[in-house]
From TrEMBL:
Source species taxonomy: Bacteria, Pseudomonadati, Pseudomonadota, Betaproteobacteria, Burkholderiales
DNA-binding recorded as keyword: yes
Keywords: DNA-binding, Phosphoprotein
DNA-binding region extent: 118-213
Identification of the protein by name: Two component transcriptional regulator, winged helix family
Pfam families from the UniProt entry: Response_reg (PF00072), Trans_reg_C (PF00486)
Native source species: Leptothrix cholodnii (strain ATCC 51168 / LMG 8142 / SP-6) (Leptothrix discophora (strain SP-6))
Length: 213
């Protein structure tokens, strides 16, 4: 797997690079935001503060552009507000420095598992079939509108991950659906809850929505 490491601390960067290489990963190590343009990767480890930019702004840019590659933020700040800012921007997880390198590998594995769901996903009393574009509730097919399906498929692409409205709009556009304002999205989520179950989709104020499996 190709890992982008965006970290300007030489000692930490070298330790992470060596540990990832030893685990069989290919590492592209950058020390500046400007160095990551046109880089292809399967997962990114991104420092919060960099000499020429903010890692959170970079992650937000990726998400707004429709890039859903898994991202783990690296930060020296053990502040809840910083972790929330990274997650709101679209990061999948975070590590607070100093961190154990084996824990880093475990978190990478966990993020990758969440980002590659089975084509058939069991969600409470429902089965979401991403390939067949079908949802079964207690064994019976559910009738979903095109926008309901597009929102559900977006959330089901990463169960347990919070998607903000911008990311959901990107998914709607990719499915040929118009973008939604906050009220429209709330209505769609409300209808999905009525069809799938009230506790299937959770709301995280100021952040977005999550499919709870």
């Amino acid at each position: 797997m190709r890992v982008l490491l965006l970290e300007d601390d030489i000692d930490l960067g070298q330790a992470v690079d060596d540990h990832l290489e030893a685990a069989g990963h290919s590492v592209y190590w950058c020390k500046l935001v400007s160095q990551v343009r046109n880089v292809t990767f399967d997962l990114a480890l991104v420092d919060l503060n960099l000499p020429d930019g903010d890692g959170v702004d970079l992650v937000r840019y990726w998400r707004q552009a429709g890039r859903l590659t898994p991202v783990i933020m690296l930060t020296a700040r053990d502040q809840v507000s910083d972790r929330i800012r990274g997650l709101q921007a679209g990061a999948d997880d975070y590590l607070v420095k100093p961190f154990d390198l084996d824990e880093m590998l475990a978190r990478i594995d966990a993020v990758l598992r969440r980002s590659s769901p089975s084509p058939r996903l069991q969600v409470h009393d429902n089965v979401v079939d991403l390939e067949q574009r079908q949802v079964l509730h207690q064994g019976q097919p559910l009738d979903l509108t095109a926008m309901e399906w597009a929102v559900l498929r977006c959330l089901a692409s990463r169960p347990g991950r919070i998607f903000n409205r911008g990311e959901i709009d990107v998914a709607l556009a990719a499915d040929g659906q118009p973008s939604s304002d906050s009220n429209t999205l709330e209505v769609i989520v409300s209808r999905l809850r009525k069809k799938l179950g009230a506790d299937v989709i959770s709301t995280h104020r100021g952040m977005g929505y999550r499919l709870d499996v």
